[in-house]
Design goal:
Layout lengths: L1 E2 L49 H11 L7 E4 L6 H8 L3 E5 L3 H11 L7 H16 L21 H15 L4 H14 L6 E3 L3 E3 L13 H22 L7 E4 L14 E6 L9 H4 L1 H6 L6 H9 L6 H4 L12 H11 L10 H25 E12 L1 E3 L2 E3 L1 H11 L2 E10 L10 H4 L12 E8 L2
Parallel strand pairs: 2-3, 2-7, 3-6, 7-8
Antiparallel strand pairs: 1-11, 4-5, 8-12, 9-10, 11-12
This protein binds S-adenosylmethionine.
The site of S-adenosylmethionine has 23 residues, from loops.
Length: about 450
């Protein structure tokens, strides 16, 4: 199914096709991260807003037509689905990721089988098992400045986590040390008093009991064994071509000095217009793994995130569009007139969020256009949104803004016609239902090509 953005409407099941266009019939095609949970390497760290390796693979097969080694960019790399698949295709890869936890994961996964070797990791896991058998007393305390409403770990669990961190600090091989940190970050919420629902909240708040004790060492070692097993397969199959692999823990929007015109293909999924708060949801990993050391560092990540967050921009003067777009401007006016009595919690605050989202969309598309070689393509996976009851066809505006900054809009492919939404939708839509007579939530891939 290929339609122009202007003709885009609601998706029908029969219109869902794989990106490479070879799909037979109306097969369901799930671009969500769920598919990655069983895939080697991709399964290491779950990421709520990731997309599937299959989707990236299809995009690479459809659009990476070069015979020479090509360079693939993901400006919003998350836990590295694009970068890893591109590496497996023998491409050079560049990723940007503002969140230090996700950046650590992307970088470490990309090193699997190359700098991060199964034998080195296996030896460290064995010696970790010996270390915990000696029942060590932790030498460090919990991270200063990490505050939660209820204790994040029970005292017994906390002691084991702190001892594991002590052990990690003693590992000399930085790749092995980062693999340990990644493993702990991947499993730590499972033995904490918090839970992803999908936002991070306390277990009692989600009707679950507190966790008084857990076999932290067994859970952590099992995760590390999974890493070793996957790396070993990678080393055996020899699929470790010598590719360039760069991951910048930085905002793509600020990266005006990216080598211009050198990227052949970008495959990415920017944050959706659903205010999913990546920073708050990854606070445990950022603080416990020492990736932020104070509140100011955490705030900086929030403020430099694409689209900001409603919490960051809801107050203050009205935020206006920095580029001309009558339809988005109309949506902002409509929003500002809704639930005015609720102040920043009403339409006014949400209008500021929507305006920052599209202002940042304009910025990143400008940087992306400059990064691509003339004729290079960007495959951008986005979901539409419904803000305070007002439908926002993000994919349509994305294509139109793309055309303003020097892209031609080749196509918008439907990927998924039902999607469970985030916090700013009415509750029936949030549960996956379509609002009566209105638009539901769907996901699309917008394909833009840099004009020659
Ligand atoms: C939808 S997720 C991408 C997930 C990715 N496709 C995957 O499979 O892991 C969007 C990502 O963009 C990141 N992000 C937000 N603002 C950014 C910015 N200014 N520069 C770089 N990354 C940013 C978020 O931290 C988040 O990880």
């Amino acid at each position: 199914m290929v339609v122009t953005a202007r003709a885009w409407g609601d998706l029908k099941a029969s219109e869902i096709r794989p990106l490479n266009g070879n799909g037979r019939g109306p097969a369901a095609y799930d671009p969500a991260f769920t598919g990655n949970r069983t895939e080697p390497l991709h399964r290491w760290v779950p990421w709520i807003a990731g997309y599937s390796a299959k989707l990236v693979n299809d995009a690479l097969e459809a659009y990476n037509g070069r015979t020479t080694k090509s360079r693939v960019l993901d400006p919003f790399a998350g836990v590295g689905t694009t970068l890893l698949e591109a590496r497996f295709h023998g491409c050079d890869t560049i990723g940007f990721e503002i969140n230090p936890w996700a950046a650590l994961v992307s970088r470490t996964k990309l090193a699997a089988g190359i700098e991060l070797r199964a034998d080195d990791l296996g030896r460290a896991v064995d010696s970790y098992r010996t270390f915990v058998a000696s029942k060590p007393k932790p030498e460090r305390g919990p991270p200063d400045g990490f505050r939660t409403r209820i204790p994040f770990f029970s005292p017994r669990v906390e002691r084991k986590v702190l001892a594991a961190l002590d052990y990690m600090a003693s590992i000399d091989n930085v790749w092995v040390r980062d693999a340990f940190r990644m493993a702990l970050g991947s499993v730590m919420v499972s033995f904490s008093n918090y839970t992803y629902e999908p936002s991070l909240g306390s277990r009692p708040g989600a009707g679950k009991p507190l966790i008084d004790n857990a076999d932290v060492d067994a859970v952590l070692s099992a995760k590390l064994d999974q890493f070793s097993a996957d790396i070993r397969v990678l080393e055996k199959t020899g699929s470790t071509p010598d590719t360039e692999r760069k991951v910048y823990n930085a905002s793509f929007l600020d990266y005006a000095s990216l080598e211009h015109g050198k990227v052949d293909l970008a495959i990415t999924s920017p944050p959706y217009l659903n205010n999913y708060h990546y920073v708050r949801n990854t606070r445990p990993q950022m603080w416990w793994l020492g990736l932020v050391s104070d509140g100011a560092a955490q705030k900086d990540v929030e403020e430099r995130s694409m689209g900001k967050y409603w919490q960051t921009v809801r107050g203050g003067d009205p935020i206006h569009l920095t580029f001309p777009h009558e339809e988005i401007a109309h949506t902002l006016r409509r929003l500002r007139a809704i639930r005015t009595e609720h102040g920043v919690y009403g339409g006014k605050g949400w209008a500021n969020y929507v305006a920052s989202y599209f202002n940042d969309t304009y910025r990143y598309l400008t940087v992306l256009n400059a990064a691509l070689r003339p004729g290079g393509r960007a495959i951008i996976v986005v979901g539409n949104s419904i803000v305070q009851g007002v439908p926002v066809p993000v994919e349509k505006y994305l294509a139109e803004i793309g055309e303003m900054v020097g892209f031609s809009h080749e196509a918008t492919n439907g990927l998924r016609s039902t999607r469970v939404g985030g916090s700013i939708l009415n509750s029936s839509v949030r549960r996956g239902a379509k609002p009566s007579g209105g638009t539901g939530l769907y996901e699309t891939a917008v394909i833009l090509r840099r004009l020659v």
